[in-house]
Amino acid sequence: MLAGLILSSVEVFSYGGEAMDLEDKLKDNKIQYILDKRDMSQKDLAATLGWWPSDISDIVNGKVKRLTLIRASMISVALGYSVEYIWPTLFK
């Protein structure tokens, strides 16, 4: 069940020959870049998703330790880009 899938910072992935934990991969995102390109604010994205602006800020600034696939997908749909594009190192 997708709703139960949580990306946990305990997992370790290979990244360019070095181990990179999920917390670092979540920090490596293109959300602010996409928002700037669309002349959109974090507050606008939060309103679109029905979330608190602080939720978006924490995700953009890499302060989240876990992110559900559902939430990542919601951001992806709202911005019109794939999860893989937004978090490029997450799937390497």
TrEMBL record:
Residue stretches spanning the membrane: none
Q: Which InterPro entries does the UniProt entry name for this protein?
A: Cro/C1-type_HTH, Lambda_DNA-bd_dom_sf
Q: Which SMART domains match?
A: HTH_XRE
Residues covered by the HTH cro/C1-type domain: 31-86
Residues annotated as coiled-coil are: none
GO terms (molecular function) for this protein are: DNA binding
Q: Which domain of life does the protein's organism represent?
A: Bacteria
Name by which UniProt lists this protein:
Transcriptional regulator (Modular protein)
